[in-house]
Amino acid sequence: MRYISTRGKAPALGFEEAMLSGLARDGGLYLPETIPTLAAGEIAALAGRPYEEVALALMRPFVGESFSEAEFKAIIARAYAGFGHAARAPLVQLEANHFLLELFHGPTLAFKDFAMQLIGQLFQAALARRGERVTIVGATSGDTGSAAIEAFKGLDNVDVFILFPEGRVSDVQRKQMTTPGEANVHALAVEGDFDTCQALLKDMFNDFAFRDEVRLAGVNSINWARVLAQVVYYFTAATSLGAPGRAVRFTVPTGNFGDIFAGLIAQKMGLPVEKLIIATNQNDILHRTLETGAYRRGEVVPSISPSMDIQVSSNFERALYYAYEGDCAAVAAQMGALAEGGFTISQGAIDWLRAHFASGRASEEETMATIRATYATSGEVICPHTAVGVKVARAHLGASGAPMITLATAHPAKFPDAVEEATGIRPALPARLARQFEAEERQTPVAADLAALEALIRERRAR
Ligand SMILES: *Cc1c(COP(=O)(O)O)cnc(C)c1O
Fold first, then answer.
1. Is residue 354 part of a domain?
2. Cβ(229) to ligand 1 under 6 A?
3. If both were cysteines, with which of 10, 14, 112, 455 could 147 make a disulfide (CB 3.0 to 4.6 Å apart)?
4. What is the tens place of the pLDDT at every residue in 217-245?
5. Catalytic site residue 9?
6. Has residue 154 been placed in a domain?
């Protein structure tokens, strides 16, 4: 399997190289040259199988010869062994025809663990085999960073630096990044918001001299291996509810468009997904784009669902690649225009997007009201991100008879203040996390300055 850049000007790479580099050298994102499809009978055969077995069957064709079947199987087993639920991604019913897909049973209590635990193991195996060492730098609005630190801490062949917006992540998120004591992980508190962190990271990847010097690797949600790992739970959920015999719909709380994009890949592989519904908080660039056909960035306004406080949605570029039917020049032109504030999508491309996606937004008040109402009507305590999804899903419930599956992206205990205010219940952290949080915090403040940041990374990484 070969991977090509959405902007068409970088060499095609194999799975392992695409995974280790993250961003393509022309600034684009990697996508598989072709997407393998499953026949209805093959999808039906996945129903009821253990999560790891489904993961192996679905991901194996994308990995190609990079890992042997036995090696890949062992990697998957290790990746999900630390999850606190036997089903890994259990389904819970909220109301008639509406289900929650609980993606928060991993070690840092957010869906990011599904991808990050897997790529930690994949990096370890690939780098050990090559005798190489890499420097992982990631930007986080909260959950990616904690998931990355948890997945890579103590591994032999990586140094990990995580940029997070100072003061804009929850206490639990910050402690998950600052309390691990392993010498190879570094939490960097950046003066600015998440878009500042993400822009610094992009600039660093475009500094090719630095990129080669420290062998920079990216594990942000633009990394193809992360998207791939997230495809699996779309299949386990849909087959549990009758796919491929019955079509389903998914509502996905969205920021960087990585999680919902995995749903599009699942659909391209043959899963009958009738609609993918984008749920945004007040930072609603994606919802506005679908409504107006123009992608225009705004100011980030901090919300109670901070992992979605994003106005430049990186993985949307991948959707544009399909919307423009693989016209890399068109994608590159639009991404270039983003620097000036935004672009208008062509009629053909916006029609394609509206055929595959619907959207909605939840205000802060609606998010709180949804946490309260969901607890009152079902007894389920949900986090603010999940509540954004539930609110938007409810607005679409009547549109067809296909079951609606809303992705529950984080455990309520990661955002206890909002949940307590809405329900009167302060959700408790699992005991293993509570213990970890007594450790001393370690973080380094950094200004939004590329040269200073690169100097810090040079100095701190092991050689
Ligand atoms: C990262 C995150 C999201 C957004 O996911 P994207 O893949 O960036 O769209 C939503 N909810 C939670 C809890 C997250 O951590």
1. yes
2. no
3. 112
4. 988 888 999 999 999 999 999 999 999 99
5. no
6. no
